[in-house]
Amino acid sequence: MSAQTRIGLDIGYSSTKAVVLNQGENPARLISLGHIASPQPGIMSESELDLQAVAGAIKNLIEEINPPVKDTVIALPEQKIFTRVVYDLPFLTDEELGQAIRYAAEEFVPMPIAEVNLYYQVIFRSPKKEANSRTVVFVIAAPKALIDKYLKIAQMADLKVVAIETEMIAAARALVSFSVYSPTTLLIQMGATNTDYAIVSDGLILLTRSIATGGGALTRAIAQSFSFEMSQAEEYKKVYGLLEDQLEGKLFKTLKPIIDVIANEAKRVILAHETQNRQRVVKRVVLTGGSAHLPGLVSYFTNFLGLEVQEADPWAAINMDPAMKSKLSGEAAFYSIAVGLALKPD
Ligand SMILES: Nc1ncnc2c1ncn2[C@@H]1O[C@H](COP(=O)(O)OP(=O)(O)OP(=O)(O)O)[C@@H](O)[C@H]1O
Ligand SMILES: [Mg+2]
Predict the structure, then answer these.
(1) From CA 57, how far away is CA 345, in angstroms rounded?
(2) Of all atoms in ligand 1, which is nearest to the CA of residue 10?
(3) How far, in Å, is the centroid of ligand 2 from the Cα of 12?
(4) Model pTM?
């Protein structure tokens, strides 16, 4: 069993989630899961002491969920990496492609290429060299220092990292079925500090974006306008959220400007994608991350975007005890990245 069991570890600013799946079974089976509050400033810090504190929390979490393996897949945060779909390449051999990707990366990576690791995923490749042959690739540039930092934390927590990927690739694996029948989807991942967007079509990511507005901004706005402690503001947010008919609409009015920043960016992402890909119109929006469960969010986004919007359920295709499934239903979307990581094939 152990050979196909993986820990998916999602190290977030506000909390760290771990999901252990046996992917050798079909469907994959849940072995255990859990989360722990991240010490502050945590993963944002570069100091050795702060990173040790993050590793300590992860160690406690792992002890608690007691996985049968140490093999772990971790994710790099979307806002710290650079991605781009490169469309305008001709037919290229593998060797030429590597070279072309380096050139392309120089245009969108705002740091020396020597300081990043480049990865790519072929989206389309003409089978042979002809006048109109082309190659389309999704390029990911990850700063080497960032990778080192995450590897170091995992090592301090006594875990064996078997793979690293990006948060949105992991979330897409857990949430969007990779079939030509599945509609082009906009994934919106709302965490504590950031909101990330990805357009997913035929199982491939075609565009990603990240903005520095997330659930933390909502809590701060409530604390400020009602003179609440952060913990009380957090409670109000989770109970009343964007429900306009609660508290005389006061909470709604406080949160709306921030939610509109997030929703307007979603519109821009859809427009940017559809300008480039007229035949892959976005048909569906999936909300994920801890903030996806904000009361009223799904209906607000449905009206704002005029599209079908749903809250993510990464557990839909995972085998588990039904009692566990109902227990998880309120916080399902919170684990999307960790589930996707634990599902990563070798
Ligand atoms: N039921 C809920 N309603 C609204 N917001 C919620 C709810 N549950 C959790 N949140 C919010 O979700 C956020 C945490 O989400 P998540 O765990 O995805 O973030 P993170 O991974 O720690 O942060 P980041 O990805 O930005 O580093 C917090 O802002 C929290 O207030
Ligand atoms: Mg997160």
Answers:
(1) 27
(2) 21
(3) 4
(4) 0.95
